[in-house]
Write a structure and sequence with these properties.
Low-confidence stretches: none
Number of helices: 8
Strand content: 5-15%
CATH architecture of the largest domain: 3-Layer(aba) Sandwich
CATH topology of the largest domain: Rossmann fold
Mean pLDDT: 97
CATH class of the largest domain: Alpha Beta
């Protein structure tokens, strides 16, 4: 399957590392013009340079702004006034004892993980509908369905994204615009290797270490390894393509079988 997104402009929020970075590179590889986003110019320029180095001829738009704020969203419109593919990847997470999560933390998780995506959808969806083509995606998590007791506030925000995606898909009905959420499972990002080795034998080679980690600490995974960011990006790029024109309002799983349920 050859995916050609030439002529399309994409915005990937929170795309200077991890899953967001892989998605931005994947979309650039498919020919899209991609706005790479982070909060500082230094991290954005570094990420843009990496994508240009990986993808020959990549057309990258640096977008240094905190897109969890109204000012950041307004600046995004200045830099990228028309977006055909909006990937709402921006998110925060951390472990907290459930009864110690404060009101301020609950609000922050909703504002960053949910409201930021809603705001950008509100900004860009009308233009997509007017052009009769567009793709909006929300990067959710297995935590949306299997709520982790140590991250209830994070799980809540990802569950909310599933509802947001379904609702906006109805708003876009019949317009040629699709709206979906992508449920990512346990993924190999950031400092996860240190985390894994804190729980298993440090002398094990990485492939064995992650399998041991999955066996002991994430036994419900059917692939019994961490997911690579590029594997999630592959699904996002497909959903961004004309091939996925009949897929909308869905919660699409790239979780390695982690969620023990049929739907979603």
């Amino acid at each position: 399957m050859i995916i050609d997104l030439t002529g399309k402009t994409a915005l990937v929020t929170g795309s200077t590392q991890g899953i967001g970075m892989a998605i931005a590179a994947g979309l650039a590889r498919a020919g899209a013009r991609v706005a790479v986003n982070g909060r500082t110019s230094a991290t954005v320029e570094e990420a843009a340079g990496r994508i240009r180095g990986e993808v020959r001829g990549a057309d990258v738009i640096p977008l240094a702004a905190d897109l969890a704020t109204e000012d950041g969203a307004a600046y995004a419109v200045e830099v990228a006034p028309e977006v055909d593919i909006l990937i709402n990847n921006l998110g925060i997470y951390e472990s907290r004892p459930p009864l110690e999560i404060t009101d301020a933390e609950w609000r922050r998780y909703f504002e960053v993980n949910v409201l930021a995506a809603v705001r950008l959808t509100r900004v860009y969806l009308p233009g997509m509908k007017a052009r009769s083509w567009g793709r909006v995606q929300y990067i959710a998590s297995d935590s949306a369905i299997v709520t982790p007791v140590e991250m209830i506030h994070y799980g809540m925000s990802k569950t909310a994204l599933l509802a947001v995606a379904r609702g906006f898909a109805k708003e876009a009905a019949g317009s040629g615009v699709t709206v979906n959420s992508v449920i990512a499972g346990p993924t190999h990002t950031g400092g996860v290797e240190d985390f894994v080795y804190s729980l298993v034998d440090r002398d094990l080679p990485w492939p064995q270490a992650q399998r041991e980690f999955m066996r002991l600490h994430r036994p419900q995974s059917l692939i019994q390894r961490l997911i690579e960011p590029e594997e999630i990006a592959n699904m996002v790029v497909y959903l961004s393509s004309p091939y996925a024109s009949a897929t909308t309002g869905g919660a699409i799983r790239v979780d390695g079988g982690y969620v023990d349920a049929i739907l979603p």
